[in-house]
Amino acid sequence: MIQSLYLGLKYLQYHIYRTIILIGAIGVILYLPLGLGRLISESETQMMARADATPLIIGAKDNATDLVINSIYFEQCNVEQITFSKANELDRLGFGYSIPFISVFNARNYPIVGTTLDYFRFRNLDIEEGHNLQFVGECVLGALVAESLNLGPGDSLVSSPDNFLDLAGSYPLQMKVVGVLKTSNTPDDRAVFTDLKTNWVIMGLGHGHEDMTEVKDPTLILEQDSTSITASAKLFIYNKIDGEKLESFHFHGDKSNFPITSILFIPDNHKAATLLRGRYKTDIIQEQILIPSEVIANLLENIFRIKHIFNTVFILVGFATLLILSLIIVLTLRLRKKELYTMFTIGSSKTKTFEIVVSELLVIIVGSLMLAAALYAISGYFVESFIQQFIL
Amino acid sequence: MIELSNLEFHYPGSDFKLKIDALNISRGSTTAVIGQSGSGKTTLLNLIAGILEPFSGSVKVGNTDVCLLSDKARRNFRIKDIGFVFQDFRLISYLNGLDNILLPFKINDSIQLNGETNIWIKNIAHEMGIENKLGKYPHQLSHGEKQRLAICRALVARPSIILADEPTGNLDPNNKTNIMNLLFAYARKNNATLVTVTHDYDMLKDFDSIIDFNDLTIDKV
Q1: Looking at the partner chain, which of B72, B93, B104 has a beta carbon nearest the beta carbon of A346?
Q2: Residues β-bridged to residue B33
Q3: Which is nearest to B6 in space by CA: B42, B43, B60, B52?
Q4: More confidently predicted of A209 and A12
Q5: Tens of pLDDT along A266-304?
Q6: Which InterPro entries match (chain A) (predicted)?
Q7: In this complex, do B107 and A6 lie within 8 Å of one another by their Cβ atoms?
Q8: Which chain B residue's Cα is nearest to A3?
Q9: Which domains does chain B carry?
């Protein structure tokens, strides 16, 4: 058998390019279902881990999946908003504490997430560089955002306008970067965190401008009485909040009616969670309460049905490859007929020639398996960052 | 001694028929086999080697009737006692010179490579003038070198019979003489029997006997 293996290896070595192509093709075909399976199961694990780490989400009675995706992965789907007062109402119930949340805007393609400092504590997000949010107009960057935009404390980041043609819409706000978070390998790495007020400023619910009582240009004032002054559109609105201008920033209206996209609720215990969920069973309450893990599990179940389709495709491709491989073997044997007959003439048995061909096949199969295993190991090394980058 | 008696052979579905009443080739002799294409010269070599089995009659090599041997015994007989030389060299393209010479040891376990064999290989490679070509692949060699390599392979197990099927058919006149001289020298030195199919009538004078397949007669030269 060793001599047959030697002759087989010599044959493969002599036809090295053919051998490499064969091993490559079979190796990739073996790897694909394994690699995809791993990608799917890792994605499932990571998506579920994030969902499992989020006890309850409260939001408008809209698409449950969109609400959860928006709240835990910051994917900016069209989520109907609720008012900030709902968070206060939840806190007053005494079942736990709420973390209000706005994820509507972007800054250079990264989601701006407006929340409170509780969020950082809840997700165990530590500051790597700089400090946490203190004032309106500040932002803290996820590790990946800071790295890809090459920004750090002291730099500034401008929010992207959601519609260039809508003059009444949100205006870009130049935010000051005050901190960068440690890498967490979660969607938090790809978010720009601000406080709620900064988000409301971007929404146009708050703004800063020069003191109207001290303006010298009379065309800036449309109406004025003892209690109020109405400014004309000519009045310059600040697009940056810094030391001097900070005091001029103010909000019009009752903040409790300002919008948020959802509330992360952290119940004190299981009983509190159950009681709270019970309250949302009634139609009187306009919001819905969701357990993220249930929503994501449902979503994954639907998405991963495609895995079965892939598996079927891979079986068919594998079968086709097997047929092609058989054809290659038959054609090769036909080409090698003279060589094999020479061996027989000299004194080889048919078993021996069969052994030589089988050893060649074995080397190809072992090589392909090793390639598939190597690809599997390499992709395992990158699968987490791949999922972070493209799936979560 | 090679003895063929009352031998009949035909290929299935073919009009070809070979009939030999008696044919003796003595040990250590050199025999040329001549005849038209398709007259059965190569068939004769295959019958002597036990590759083909006659319809009737016997093929004896020494005291052994090749026809009565099992398949395995026949293969072992071929690998130990017979050295084949072909017109088209039949070298294995993916093996270098040395591996081609060693091929019989790699395809049949009944012969084993040992120190003595290694010396023998060096000797025959030297005699054939290809000792510095052993690392080369067949496509890197000239026709003459290829045939010398093929002869080395045929002689590696020190056979008592050499069956050469038009060994000089693809060679230039100079190489023809050299190759035949090498085969004659081995046969004489080792008391081996050389049976050569040839179309080259100029060479016939060098053989001890001639088998003419045109009328199946045996002439002593």
Answers
A1: B104
A2: B197, B211
A3: B60
A4: A12
A5: 999 999 999 898 888 877 788 899 999 999 988 888 777
A6: MacB_PCD
A7: no
A8: B106
A9: 2-220 (3.40.50.300)
